[in-house]
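Question (not urgent): is this output format expected?
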Amino acid sequence: MQAILSVTIPFFALVLLGYLAGQRRLLPESAIPGLNAYVLFFALPCMLFRFGASMPFAQLIDPALIGIYSLCALAMVALTVAVTVRRRPGGQGVNLTDAAFGALVAAFPNSGFMGVPLLAALFGAQAAGPVIGTLLVDLFLTSTLCLAIAQAHRHRHRGPAGDAGDASSSVLTTVARALRGALSNPQPWAIGLGALAAATSLQLPAPVAQVVKMLADSASPVALFTIGAVLWRAGQHAHTRTATRDYLPVALLKLFAHPLLVGGAGLAARAAGIAVPSFGLMMLVLAAALPSASNVSLLAERYGADNGRVARIIMASTVLAFGSFTLIAWGFEQMPQ
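Got this back:
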């Protein structure tokens, strides 16, 4: 346990420091988007490029692991929507738009900003491969599906009845926009370029390699600090007050149901004769046990969802994950190799 805590305590401490820096106004709120942009467009892509360039393509994209994680992502979205959506006027729960964003935070772990560096620190650089695969699934599949569900609900309640063609067009437009957003995200491109460099044995010129190294080395601490700052900012921009029953169950689904589902699906696939690597499956479970992706709060704000609820789900999952993730990682460490 001491070895696990020696890694998880500093990681979560940096998140706390970022939150306190925003709360105490040591970090101006206007600086937070710039800090987020630095991580998203500079530091994190360089880190992902280096990981992608350091391992065979098969370790980055394992079809069995990608398939297991994709099916579980779909199952988590369906489960969260089913558990949280309000089915009758005046009944408990939330509308379908908010349920879709709740499903997004329940199925989308903070793999980029936290998962890749944390699991690499705990289990070595080879841990990055399976986690990078989960990141691609969430960027292209999970996000697109949840945004399409949210947009379908918004259009149905905004337009005149019977406008099925307009609704379909609106959903397709949202799907196309989500896919364009994923493609405009530098992370998949950095991963792809890293994989290409590995496949062709490409070596960057020494000055360029040094710049990439310096940016990559800054990714982990700055990203963790930024998570905390973004969480504080999301709380400041929350437009609604949310009851505990509306956000805590989703955070618990994220931290417990998601890793259990991934682990169970992996074992079932192995029992069916599919070659599922033990180490890769362990990384998938640990990725699923991470807290929710912090940037989903920005998406919720942009799409007019209840960003107060989303922010509280992310905050609760981040706070609770220090204990839950640490225990799960420690449990895996105790298993015979």
